[in-house]
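quick q for whoever's on today - can somebody do inverse folding on this one?? i tried earlier but teh output was garbage lol. C-alpha cells:
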C-alpha cells in the first residue's frame, strides 16, 4: 500500500467527519429556531450515536466539534459526556459571555505586546553574540517574522472583539 492511498483514506475520513458536523449543526440550528419561535431561550440537543446512511463515528469528537462551532457562533454551550449539548441564547447570558471574551482578548493582547517588547529588547542586547562583526544595534532577523505573527494574533483578536461588540449591539 502506497502512502498516497493511506493519505486518501485519512482525507476521506476527515471529509465525512466534517459532513457529519455540518449536517448535525443544521439540525441544531433548526431546533434552536423552533425553540426561539416558541419563546424559549435554551434547549438540549442529544447527538445521535448512529445516523442512517452515515458511517460510524466517534460521538465525543463530533460533540466537541459541535460545541466549538456553537460557542464560536456566540451561544453558551455546555457539553456532557453522553453526547448532549445544553445550548443557551438568553440575551443577558450572551452579553456576559461577550463582555468576558472582550476582556480576555484585551488581556491577551497586552500580554503578547509585552512579550514582543521583551523579546525585541533581549534580541538587541545579545545581537553582538550572533553577529560579532556587525556594529549596528539592530538588524532584521527571524524576530521580525515573529513580530509579524504577534501582530496578526492581535489583529485577529481585534476582529473577534468587533464581532462580539456587534453581537452586543443587537
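ok took a stab at it. sequence:
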Amino acid at each position: 500500500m502506497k502512502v498516497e492511498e493511506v493519505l486518501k483514506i485519512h482525507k476521506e475520513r476527515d471529509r465525512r467527519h466534517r459532513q457529519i458536523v455540518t449536517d448535525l449543526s443544521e439540525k441544531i440550528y433548526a431546533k434552536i429556531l423552533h425553540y426561539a419561535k416558541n419563546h424559549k431561550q435554551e434547549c438540549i440537543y442529544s447527538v445521535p450515536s448512529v445516523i442512517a446512511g452515515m458511517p460510524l463515528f466517534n460521538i465525543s469528537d463530533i460533540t466537541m466539534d459541535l460545541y466549538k462551532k456553537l460557542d464560536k457562533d456566540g451561544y453558551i454551550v455546555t457539553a456532557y459526556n453522553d453526547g448532549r449539548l445544553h445550548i443557551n441564547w438568553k440575551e443577558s447570558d450572551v452579553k456576559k459571555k461577550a463582555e468576558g471574551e472582550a476582556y480576555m482578548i484585551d488581556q491577551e493582547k497586552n500580554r503578547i505586546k509585552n512579550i514582543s517588547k521583551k523579546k525585541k529588547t533581549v534580541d538587541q542586547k545579545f545581537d553582538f553574540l550572533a553577529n560579532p562583526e556587525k556594529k549596528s544595534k539592530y538588524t532584521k532577523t527571524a524576530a521580525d517574522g515573529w513580530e509579524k505573527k504577534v501582530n496578526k494574533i492581535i489583529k485577529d483578536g481585534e476582529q473577534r472583539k468587533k464581532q462580539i461588540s456587534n453581537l452586543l449591539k443587537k
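fwiw Helices lie at 3-37, 59-72, 91-125, 127-130, 142-169. also The chain has two domains: 3-89, 92-169. so keep that in mind when u check it
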